[in-house]
């Protein structure tokens, strides 16, 4: 780990309001750390009822009810705590880390609606805080969880290997847990997944990026431990290849999801860049490093998409910092800016500054030109050494933008420092879940990047993208026959649509027509992902024109792990 003093970065240029950001960071850091620890069982002040090592998402139990533990949130929280521990910043965290590992190991073995440990259960996104399965309907599976969890644990394992000069503890206590997650990622990375916002079931840039990272780190750890790394390396290469396909050269951003009917502009991509930051990898675009031309272009497109849709951003210059949310089409809880996404914008820029400073230059390409013109409108493509005035002007501008982004974060944080999930797009007051653990973790990681702290390298340097992408293992499916007893008039047909791509993601226009061969039973057999919670409805069309949906609620079932299933329904 190398540390660059923030004063060295700050020397790049005078920044308006910097001292107020300094004071915000000074007061908010301990509050964020305490807020995060308060949400971890068994002794966190707001986590009563949570088992040891369980991270609650938020103590909020109504609108929204977040008193659950998510594998993603917990792993990101412990990624931060493990970074603090292994870099020596906080040496008191060992007990927490051990609790986390034990709790996650229990969750791995807990059968749940996504399956058992060997049949897909590792893709389950959320559990009850007493480590039992959550069995309600949910967007599952979410395949980023095992990747993020193994990344957090691998950092700890690497530290243990260095710290204890023996591999026996890692091999006996940690490797079996890490291996389960790595095998899951290696065998399932190429299947559709709910995205990190739990809404879209396609492929997700964030998920592929964090899967790639975990496989790459996993291969290195496996080799160190004398284990077989062949599959991890092969699938890391395949995932890296697929990762390139998210880039949208026309729009200048990574399209966050491979379907779903949105612009694809999403905090997904900035979050992926900061969580796969590798200080050794320079501004590598294959892994979308924070200072890569593609990630910078994407960041600008993402930030700009919130300028006109949030009233609190009104009147801010078109090249200045603003509050940002998940994605511009968001309507959840009113569709507001989030603390953790606003923090991610600043973090990506601090990460970029760290690398430009370390390498003594920055490069402007056709792809990143629009990003850089925000800070120097006359800039042209080229490489600018740190001794040049172009470098000074641009880095000062980028730093000011990052600082101003944090100033916005500060402005909408209540005076007691509490961080909710969102803040109002119209007046900035905190909204949705209060004391969101991930908001606290995101504050700590951006503060750490601002201080110039760099995380350990994970092997992103100098990777070659394979020229031909392989699919990885073929996605398994099971055949499900849907039968519905429905009386129809001449001209009418019965169709089906539902919650997965194979059922057209609820789109009535492309719903699948069923066969009346055994009228009044209408039938269709659909190949669906195994062991997946699926919702669906039948619809009636007259000469292809939508006439009627079945009444609520949605029909729901879990597809079998293997083999086939037949569902016998009656039109409601
Ligand atoms: C191992 O880590 C502990 C706790 O951070 C530290 O006190 C100790 O000096 C380290 N030992 C080695 C050999 O690195
Ligand atoms: C699997 O990988 C192939 C090849 O990269 C890609 O075309 C396909 O879209 C991927 N499928 C999913 C669901 O990720
Ligand atoms: C290592 O794993 C690969 C891929 O799963 C397999 O083909 C190979 O036989 C394994 N090698 C050893 C020595 O077990
Ligand atoms: C902090 O302030 C916010 C906003 O005023 C309030 O909703 C919250 O309850 C306060 N938190 C604590 C722990 O006092
Ligand atoms: C599903 O149906 C297809 C088409 O009839 C068939 O080729 C395939 O073997 C079936 N798969 C299973 C697992 O039964
Ligand atoms: C539907 O009917 C078929 C044959 O009549 C039967 O094999 C199957 O088990 C039934 N499915 C359910 C879910 O009851």
Automatic annotation (TrEMBL):
Q: Which Gene3D superfamilies does the entry mention?
A: 1.50.10.10, Immunoglobulins
- Tell me, what is one Gene Ontology molecular-function annotation carried by this entry? hydrolase activity
- Which InterPro entries does the UniProt entry name for this protein? 6-hairpin_glycosidase_sf, 6hp_glycosidase-like_sf, Carb-bd-like_fold, CBM20, GH15-like, Glucoamylase, Glucoamylase_SBD, Ig-like_fold
Span list, region Disordered: 550-572
Pfam families, per database record: CBM_20, Glyco_hydro_15
Q: Which SUPFAM superfamilies match?
A: Six-hairpin glycosidases (SSF48208), Starch-binding domain-like (SSF49452)
Q: Which residues form the CBM20 domain?
A: 472-572
Question: Does the record carry Hydrolase as a key word?
Answer: yes
This enzyme's EC code(s): 3.2.1.3
Catalyzed reaction equations: Hydrolysis of terminal (1->4)-linked alpha-D-glucose residues successively from non-reducing ends of the chains with release of beta-D-glucose
Keywords in UniProt for this one? Carbohydrate metabolism, Glycoprotein, Glycosidase, Hydrolase, Polysaccharide degradation, Signal
**Which range is the signal sequence, renumbered to this chain?**
1-17
Q: Where is the composition biased (Polar residues)?
A: 554-572
Similarity section: Belongs to the glycosyl hydrolase 15 family.
Q: What is this protein called?
A: Glucoamylase
Q: From which source organism is this entry?
A: Mycena chlorophos (Agaric fungus)
């Amino acid at each position: 780990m190398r540390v660059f003093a923030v004063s060295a970065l700050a020397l790049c240029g005078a920044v308006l309001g910097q001292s107020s950001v300094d004071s915000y960071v000074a007061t908010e850091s301990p509050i964020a750390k305490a807020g995060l620890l308060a949400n971890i069982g068994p002794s966190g002040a707001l986590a009563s009822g949570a088992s040891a090592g369980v991270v609650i998402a938020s103590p909020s139990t109504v609108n929204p009810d977040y008193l659950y533990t998510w594998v993603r949130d917990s792993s990101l929280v412990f990624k931060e705590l493990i970074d603090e521990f292994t870099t020596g910043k906080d040496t008191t965290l060992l007990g927490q880390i051990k609790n986390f590992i034990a709790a996650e190991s229990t969750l791995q073995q807990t059968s749940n609606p996504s399956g058992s440990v060997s049949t897909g259960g590792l893709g389950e996104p959320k559990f009850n805080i007493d480590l039992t399965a959550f069995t309600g309907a949910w967007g599952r599976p979410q395949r980023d969880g095992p990747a993020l969890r193994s990344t957090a644990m691998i950092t700890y394992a690497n530290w243990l290997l260095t710290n204890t000069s023996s591999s026996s503890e890692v091999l006996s206590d940690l490797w079996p847990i890490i291996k389960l997650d790595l095998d899951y990622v290696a065998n399932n990375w190429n299947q559709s997944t709910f995205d990190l916002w739990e809404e879209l079931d396609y492929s997700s840039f964030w998920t592929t990026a964090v899967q790639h990272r975990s496989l790459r780190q996993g291969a290195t750890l496996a080799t160190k431990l004398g284990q077989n790394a062949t599959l991890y390396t092969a699938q890391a290469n395949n995932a890296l290849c697929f990762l390139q396909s998210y880039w949208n050269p026309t729009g200048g951003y990574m399209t966050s999801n491979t379907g779903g009917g949105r612009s694809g502009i999403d905090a997904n991509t900035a979050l992926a860049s900061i969580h796969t930051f590798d200080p050794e990898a320079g501004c590598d675009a294959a892994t979308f490093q924070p200072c890569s031309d593609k990630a910078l272009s994407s960041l600008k497109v993402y930030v700009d998409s919130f300028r006109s849709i949030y009233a609190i951003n009104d009147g801010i210059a078109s090249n200045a910092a603003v509050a940002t949310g998940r994605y511009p089409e968001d309507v959840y809880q009113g569709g507001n800016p989030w603390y953790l996404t606003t923090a991610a914008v600043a973090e990506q820029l601090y990460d970029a500054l760290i690398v430009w400073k370390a390498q003594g230059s920055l490069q402007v390409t056709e792809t990143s030109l629009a990003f850089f013109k925000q800070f120097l409108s006359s800039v042209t493509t080229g490489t600018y050494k740190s001794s040049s005035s172009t470098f000074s002007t641009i880095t000062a501008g980028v730093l000011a933008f990052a600082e101003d982004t944090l100033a916005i974060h500060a402005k909408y944080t209540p005076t007691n420092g509490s961080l909710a999930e969102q803040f109002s797009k119209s007046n900035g007051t905190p909204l949705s879940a209060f004391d969101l653990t991930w908001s606290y973790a995101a504050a700590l990681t951006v503060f750490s990047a601002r201080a110039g702290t760099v995380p350990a390298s994970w092997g992103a340097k100098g990777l070659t993208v394979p020229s031909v992408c392989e699919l990885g293992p073929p996605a398994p499916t099971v055949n499900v026959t849907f039968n519905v007893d429905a009386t129809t008039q001449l001209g009418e047909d019965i169709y089906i649509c539902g919650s997965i791509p194979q059922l057209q993601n609820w789109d009535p226009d492309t719903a699948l027509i069923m066969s009346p061969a055994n009228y009044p039973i209408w039938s269709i057999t659909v190949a669906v992902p195994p062991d997946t919670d699926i919702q669906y409805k039948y619809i009636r069309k007259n000469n292809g024109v939508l006439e009627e949906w079945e009444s609520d609620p949605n029909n729901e079932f879990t597809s079998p792990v293997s083999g086939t299933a037949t569902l016998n329904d009656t039109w409601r």
